[in-house]
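ARCHIVE ENTRY
Sequence with per-residue tokens
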Amino acid sequence: MADQPRRPRTLNDARSEAEAAFKRATTKVADAVPKTAAVPGVREQVTLRIDQDVLEYFQEGGPGWQDRINAALRKAAGK
């Protein structure tokens, strides 16, 4: 087999080899993200789109409507 002439490297072959080498050299194995336990009483601010009629239902009860939405979501999540 050493007597056979080597076929000329094409641009696509060289590019593919270079990209593969670059990928091997720069790819980092992602560490598993540790799942943090929810701390009771700690709240996180989020943006949530709720249908207007649902929002009005919770707001009809006056102050504390966000707590009522949170309680309903917690119940729906089985918590």
Remarks:
- The chain has a mean pLDDT of 82.
